[in-house]
Amino acid sequence: MAKNILENELFESFANASDNIYIYVCDMESDISRWSKNTVDYFNLESEYIEGAGAKWMEHIHPDDRALYLKDIEAVFSGKSNRHSCQYRAKNKYNDYVWLECKGSVISGEDGRPLVFAGLMTRLDNQNKYDPLTHLLTNYEMQKYDFSTGSGAILLVGINSFRKINNTNGFLYGNKVLIALSEYLEHLAGKNDRVYRLQGDEFIILSPDGSKSELRKLIENVNDYCMNIRGLKSFSVSAGLVSYPEDGTDFNTLMSNLEHSLEYAKDQKQGWIAEFSEKISQRHLRASRLHDALTQSIHNHFEGFELYFQPILETKTQKITECESLLRWKTPEIQDATPYEFIKLLENSGEIREVGYWVMEEALRHAAMWQKKYNNISVSFNVSYIQLLDGEFIDKLITKARELQVDPRLIMVELTESCNADDTKMLSCQFSKLQKLGFKIAMDDFGTEYASFGLLHDVSMDVLKIDQKFVRGLVRDGNKTDIAIIENVVNMCRQLSIQTIAEGVETEEIQEIIRGIGVSYLQGYLYSKPVPAHEFEQMLINQQESQSV
Ligand code: C2E
Ligand code: CA
Ligand code: CA
To answer: Residue 143 in 3-state DSSP?
Structure first.
């Protein structure tokens, strides 16, 4: 009997239905049950077939939910009910409780005896009352809160660069950071406060009857704390604050105002905490307006986008040998969006991929035009890390360069962001394919990311661009730290046969200092700002003429 019931093909097909649905079927005469493989794995069960599973499964159920479960299941087994349906928390293989909705029914034989008990459990991921990782209340719980009566304040805390923390140190390390912060927030929170974990790296402290200034005071030392947690590298957080009813009287409005405040705090670099204000609201409106216009431009065949070019000079000869392509964008209505502003919007929406292909093609087109006319001028263009994730980028670059007959040795890709260890493997693989064909790879903004050195270790680079922040402020007899940093970077690069470019050369004085250190190439306003293609070309013409004199 058991064999027939438990080996049913129907079971097999249901068992593979979905990752968060768990199937079981029990032969009630022998009390042997079969559980789908994902159940065995996720809940760490002893095997696919279990005798007397009832008691064993009970051990997985949260002690607070056992009575409810028992009542329901006993009604089924005693024949009082032929349907089992309840929600409870069960412990998974990570020792976390997750909410399940468990539904089952009994099939009886002709004589009325119960034969089979079968059913499925659905994991209610977004309906958990408690977050399995931090055991804080969830977003789902917060949505149930009634903000329309009474008054209070809400704090939203987000970890800065959490994606990078995760990427650089791994998922489990990221979890430790989340747990440490959640424990601290819970420790800070007052008796009447509620602490929630939203998705990802965001936490809420909701203070009924509290005020923004009280919450601000409560959290004031959070960053000191985050810098000194035993066993963890230092990290930092930003925060947004709202109060109700002033800033909203429903969950959605308050959350969206909180998110905008947090975004503002993260971007401002001055002050890590921001109270919602009219200014923040306006800023968000501007971002939405820019984003809509950007999408429109992309649809209109990249209307409004243009590449500017900034000369790069060889230190030894002071001649322009290269240039960097820099993206510009404006529309009749929007004339003042900076590259930092619109590129961030494109990166956030993922549209940077499409725009990135356009940039690549434009850069290659100009390189093709200039390579013969002006004695092998190289052209570099910027690539955000997310542009490389789809794996097609490299092949498209190779194909396009062949199509336009550009010498790959004249093309340099500047990687603007760091990335995680798994992806460095992928990057190093993709880059070496390019390098074999002669393309050059540069690491941009060296020194601004704490993962810069790691990337240098894993990916072979041809060029390293020393970030402006070390260069722009240089004065003779001034701060020795920046000079020491540049000297060390240049020495290291020399040993690794990597060439160096100093960005942000704004004055003669900086030029002399940089030259003294032995940086290979110079870029900065001292020579020229980024200019449209025809102006850059004019510089090349002038240079050619002065050489032939
Ligand atoms: P970046 O790659 O570090 O580019 C250098 C930035 O420094 C440019 O800003 C340039 O105009 C500016 N700059 C150059 N010399 C000097 C100087 O002497 N002093 C000062 N103060 N600034 C100087 P820009 O054009 O505003 O670009 C900003 C950033 O936007 C770029 O920084 C790059 O990260 C990003 N970007 C620009 N074009 C693209 C693109 O096509 N794709 C991607 N993914 N990012 C891009
Ligand atoms: Ca760059
Ligand atoms: Ca740079």
So the answer is: helix
